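lol forgot to send this yesterday, sorry. struct tokens for the thing we talked abt
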């Protein structure tokens, strides 16, 4: 599976944002007519990784809207998320939301978001994320010599990379 080519931005067409969060990061795709215009992702900070899932999903929306500020400010935006409880939170008055979500909702007030966030079951971001394609890359590179795998293992073990690797995932790479 290869990720589709980015489309050109058209100021006359509607904007959509598809965003998602995981245990370790946030991801978003800015879309027009079902074609991606831009991608963005980042790892969660240590304190953010302790957030509840609903807070991570709202953080993903805040991150994506602020990241694509040049495109989104002053325009109506449709936000697609796979977390349905956000629909009810978005409809509540600000003072009825939990404190951490209140801060995030205040950051979103300058944007014209569609408050009826639709639940995306086939999220573009998840379908074309690097996490999905990584195992495929590993399968293609199984012809590497054991010395190369040892070098990769040592590199990951030292913590030189930006993502965490669980011990059970490291077992195939152990020398």
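and heres what i got for the seq, position by position
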């Amino acid at each position: 599976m290869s990720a589709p080519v980015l489309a050109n931005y058209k100021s006359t067409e509607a904007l959509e944002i598809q965003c998602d969060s995981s245990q370790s990061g946030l991801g978003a795709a800015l879309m027009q007519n079902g074609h991606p215009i831009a991608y963005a992702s980042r790892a969660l900070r240590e304190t953010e990784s302790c957030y509840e899932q609903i807070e991570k999903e709202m953080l993903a929306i805040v991150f994506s809207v602020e990241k694509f500020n040049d495109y989104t400010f002053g325009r109506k935006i449709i936000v697609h998320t796979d977390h349905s409880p956000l629909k009810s939170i978005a409809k509540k008055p600000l003072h009825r939301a939990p404190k951490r979500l209140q801060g995030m909702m205040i950051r979103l007030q300058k944007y014209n978001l569609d408050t009826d966030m639709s639940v995306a079951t086939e999220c573009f971001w998840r379908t074309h994320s690097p996490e999905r394609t990584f195992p495929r890359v590993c399968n293609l590179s199984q012809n590497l010599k054991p010395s190369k795998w040892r070098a990769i293992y040592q590199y990951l073990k030292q913590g030189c990379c930006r993502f965490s690797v669980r011990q059970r995932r490291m077992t195939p790479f152990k020398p």
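Residues 18 and 80 are 5 Å apart (CA to CA). anyway ping me if u want another try
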